[in-house]
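Quick note —
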Amino acid sequence: MKKLYYSIGEVSKITGIEAHVLRYWESVFPELNPLKGKSGNRRYREQDLAVVLELQDLIHTKGYRTAGAQKVLKEKANKSNSGENSSHDVTTADRRELSPELRRELTEMRHLLQAISQKL
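Predicted structure written out below.
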C-alpha cells in the first residue's frame, strides 16, 4: 500500500541513504523539496522519493559528483518544460532501439522499484 507521506526515517530505510545525507541533498538539489509539518518534520511524497532514487542512481551507482547530478537534473527539468520529454506509447521498434546498457539500467531500476514496493 502506498502512503501519501513518508518520514525521513522511512525514506532512509527504503533507500538505504542516511537521514543526514537526505537533509544535505535537500540543501543542494532544489528538486528535492519535501513538505514540512508544523513541528518541522519532513514529509516526503512519492515524487520526492523518486528524486531521492534518481539521485541515488546518479551519485552512488553512476558515480556522478554533486555538480554533475545537479546538471543532469536541470537538463531533465528543461527537457520536460520544453516538451521534448513528451509522453507517448513505446512501440516495439522503439524497444529494439534501446542500447543494451540502457536496457540493463532500466531493468535494474525496475527491480529496485519492485523491491521498494514490496517493503511498503
